[in-house]
Fold each of these.
Amino acid sequence: MSTQSPEPNNLIAESLFHVKRIFHYPTPGHANSILQPSIRATYMDLAKAKKYALRALLDEGYQPEQFLELHMRHDTQAEEPTIWPYGDGVSVWAKIVDEGIVTVEIETTHNTLGRLLDHDGDGRVKEPLFFLIQTTIDYAKDWSVGSRQTAIEGVFRTRDEAAARALTVLLGNEEGEREIKKSDFASYEENAGQDDWPFDSNIMVHAIGENGLNILVAVVESAPAV
């Protein structure tokens, strides 16, 4: 019997499905490195992404008994499925200590990378990927910690590509986008490697809109495929 690993499949998928783990806390004092999303896996098949999302926390090393509450969204063929109150894109919702919440969500993006390697037919992308993550914080909804929304604004094969795009993503400099100037923001700061940069090193841009919304643009590397 052969013990050789399967040959990698070279596939082009129209969409990519990213399994995203996020911590949420109602109190201040938690580092952005903790609050920042972690991309646990990327799949070329939605059903397989949903299946993995249910065990993503276990793969990260967590055990069910560590959670005060744990709710998992299993696909059902029932005519009247149970109402899921935690959001359409959320596969796992768990309550943790310090009043925290951890969610595992699936976010879909268009595949701009072309062919991707799927080593063993499970639909999971095995190549390391780098994500442009935009976090928008609205302190009007919660003055102490803000209401956070995160979105993947780009997927890249190298950190340098992601970092370069981070410097223009808020400015609308790509073809077909309306140009927005830095002066259109109440505040706009870029990470140029300066010693006094007040944010984590992977955050490339911090901006404050005229509406008071805080925006962080970060480069996040995917978790290694197991």
Note: Residues 9-78+86-221 form one domain.
Amino acid sequence: MKDIDESTLLAYADGALTPDQAGRVEAVLAADPQRAADVRQLQQVKARLRNGYASVLEEPIPAHLLDAARQRPPALPQTSVVTATAPIQAPATRQHATRRWAVPTSIAAALLIGFWLWQRQPAQPAPSALLAEQGHDASGTLALALDRQLSGEQQGKIRMGLSFRAHDGRYCRSFSLQSSHAGLACRQGERWRIEAVSPLQPQRNDSELRMASSTLPAALLDAIDARIDGQALDAEGERSARARHWR
């Protein structure tokens, strides 16, 4: 699309544009039904992900952890910002409109925050005992959660995100573990195959570190985008799929 760059479309999907900018984007999308449909689908996926993970990711972080994180140098260099020459630009002050594949600003902060959240959980198997490697089958507690829990439900360290049909007809489900990792599993016969696994990442916003539902791993979003056929299942659709054992 010539008139709108991708960063502006992502900002529009996040609701980060001003009313005037959003109106100009909508005017251009009106002439491109396919791109408009893609943007609507992205908004739906983002909404389901936020609903699925919001309560896990939006807890306030203790001040002593924030102070400790700020004292550590970033583990990775900051991503260079490339400004596209387009008539519509995403507002520079809206941090949550950052491109979803941007690297985390501080790995140290992620480790500290993850450790704090882990301490708050009841004693259960460690994530390594729950999470199979990518390309392997889920087992034990994770497999049981994928079979039984609905979107937004949490049992112990496992919380379900969204559920959808993939292009090949399989059911796929996103999940988070212990506020440290997120993943995607798809039904394969009687098993759940792990399709993607990625650590949850912190975001710096207004000089504060916080965990936000808009900072889900780019790898997970890409895996969902590559597989989802149509819209994510609503509550009734999930219950129906569960009753059929996700077949």
Note: The CA atoms of residues 240 and 246 lie 8 Å apart.
